[in-house]
Amino acid sequence: xxxxxxxxxxxxxxxxAPVLMASTPASxxxxxxxxxxxxxxxxxxxxxxxxxxxxxxxxxxEIFKLSNISKMKLKVEGLDELVLQRLWFQVNQxxxxxxxxxxxxxxxxxxxxxxxxxRFRDAEGVFVQSHPPEVFQRELPETIQxxxxxxxxxxxxxxxxxxxxxxxxxxxxxxxxxxxxxxxECFSGTESSQDYCEAxxxxxxxxxxxxxxxxxxxxxxxx
Length: 223
Description:
The chain has one domain: Interleukin-34 (Growth Hormone, Chain: A, Up-down Bundle), CATH 1.20.1250.
């Protein structure tokens, strides 16, 4: 009736497995894959339909890249993946709203961007429903809370030094790359998920590296 040390060890692994392996609920995969389908057309709608060197103004924190995820994991010991997923939704809902805001009603990319935002919101709704309410009431790590506060600050209260200029294409690229990293279980077995948490993966296939962000104090070019 007594378990030996090896049996206890194996029992411990069995009990821990669901915690370690189930960071993304299975119900999330359908809306995320649908979103990913739309993102596959981003080059056409987020680059070709915009003037050359067109930038929009965003929060510094809205330039959310794979390298940001790596830095946060190093800075916050034991950072929960769920916290990063929550932050991903908060960051990118603002990004998509800012892109839509600069598009005239008849712009060829507006229907695509509106559909992208709708699919994003669908995924966010499933994300919220897939976790108990108390998960979203937990106190965030100080580093993450600081980012959250800056994202939700009233625009007229944000210091000028905290704004950046970035192209719509680079922002949506970041959305796609970080999605595949943070929700990798939904994309396992697909080419887009291989090593997607490595910053170097997102640079494959580029002829020349694009600038990370644009800080010049001028507004984007007019249409």
